Every structure is written in C-alpha cells, then in structure tokens.
Amino acid sequence: MATPTAYINGEFAPLADAKVGIQTHALHYGTAVFEGIRGNWNAEHETMYIYKLREHYERLLQGCKMLWIDVPHTVDELCGITVELVERSGYREDLYIRPVAYKAQEMVANLNLRALGDGFFCLAVPFGNYIDSDGAISCCVASYRRIDDTMVPPRFKLSGLYLNSILAKTDAVASGFEEAIMLNMDGHVCEGTGENIFVAHKGVVSTPTIESNALPGITRETVLGLLRGELGVAVQERSIDRSELYTADEVFLSGTAAHVQGVGSVDHRPVGSGGVGPITRRLQELYFPIVRGGNPAYAGSCTPARPRPA
Ligand code: PMP
Q1: Ramachandran region of residue 126, left (φ > 0), alpha (ψ -120 to 50) or beta?
Q2: Which of 7, 76, 233, 257 counts the highest number of beta carbons within 10 A?
C-alpha cells in the first residue's frame, strides 16, 4: 500500500492536500524550474534507486538562479527531502519524482521576477515507460524550432520553455509519429522534445553540443560516458545537419523519462535497418542495470531509498 505524499511549504503532506492558489504567478506565466528524476524499483534489493539525484538538484538550482528563485535548501538537503518523500510515499514500483521551484506569489500582473516570492514542492508518482515502445520509434522533424538561448535559455528546465516541446510533440503525435526531433534556429539538429539525440554513422556517435540549445541532459552524460568508457566508441559533440538523420546507421534518444530509446525512422525514412541498432542495443543493456542499482561499479550514481510500510 502506498501513501501518496508531497513535500510543500517546508513539510510533508498528503498529495491530495497539496494545492496552490489560482493567482499563483507560475501558473500564469510558467515562472518555475522543475526536474524529472527517476526512482527505479529493484525488487531483489527491496530498494528504490534514485538515479543521479544530486545532478538533478544541481541543475534545478542553476535554473533557479536564472529565474531569481530562492530555494531555502542546499543540494544535500534537497536530496534528503527527496529520499524521505520516496520512503514516506511507500511505492514499490518505478517512480517519477518531480521537484518544482516556482514563483509562488499570488500576484498576477507583475513581470518582474525579483518582486515575487518563491515556493518549492516535490512529489513522486508511479511511472512506467514514457514512450510506450520497446522497439524503435517513428520520429518526424518538427516544424517548431528549438527556442534559442537568446530568447529563453533552454539549458535549464524552465517550465514556460516547455510550451516549445509541447507544441512539437502534440503535432508529431497528431500526425502519427511517436516523437518529434527539433532543429535549432540555424537549422541544425538539436534534440527530441524531452530527450537528447545521438546519431551513429560508420561507428562514430555524434550528439549536438549544448551550445546548439540542447538541454545538458543527465542521461546524455551517462550515455557519453558509457560510449567512451565501456564501449570504446568514438564520440563527437558537434553541429549535426538534418540530412544526417536520414543517412545515419542509428539514431537514438536519451532522457530520464525515455531512458535510451532507439529511433526506427525519421520522416518516414528508415534509420539503418529500421530496428534498434547494435550500438543502441549495447547501450541499453548497460544502462538499465546501472539505473536500477544492479551494477556495483555505478553504485555511487544511485541513491537508495527504502519505502516504509503504510
Ligand atoms: N531535453 C529535454 C528538452 C528534456 O526535457 C529532457 C528531459 N529532462 C532531456 C533532454 C533529457 O535530460 P535528462 O537526461 O537530464 O533527463
């Protein structure tokens, strides 16, 4: 039995009681920073492993600096709050953990971030596959371009920024694709709507630089480390042309929610053989045990939490 729980305004509360008012600034303008963190249930260990918890909160606090949001906690405290939240929630299945730091002030007509008070909450909900496919998914290139650092910096997970992803994803799904790949303002490949992107060609794996307006993904870092360290595959962080998507041997996506996801086609053109390619497959085989606390060499990346009985 689980006990759905939130941490809000400095205390734990039943999730159903955790509410914000309709004048909340963040609700009107997207003035919030969030994270998506996974808790991966390991039945054998009877333990939830929270992957790269610190890294998520480090990124959250960077976004807070951008938005002048003051979170009254250190990274260590935020990690502690999250472990306690997971333990109190009591779930014994995979989780999505969502911390949000936001402009909490109930003041609607004020566009000066520094005039507004802040809030922080965190919740955890059961969460299986984000993309409902074990195979390789179909993607299109979105007509919406990835928003530029000179507009709203996409290197942080700023809530309002996600309208950009949401418009692209919604159009892609409406057109029968499973995911959209976004180009940046100069027409180079940027990322998926909620994932970083990798392109493999002749044994070399390339991914867009962060300066191409991609999110500095935590899974992206894991993937780069596995490619270089475990698989000995050459990696390039560089500008990628759209046309490379059509001629690649493999294309795959990475993200906390999506894990490592093969792409089988782009704009109806098969990628490689149209299935999950060999490099993608080897990455998946390495990645899943790591995030589930099953590879002792990576134990330092997994924060354990032991759900309390209800
Ligand atoms: N790009 C975007 C736009 C995202 O929303 C995400 C998900 N956070 C990612 C990439 C992947 O980042 P991460 O691996 O840190 O989840």
Answers
A1: beta
A2: 7
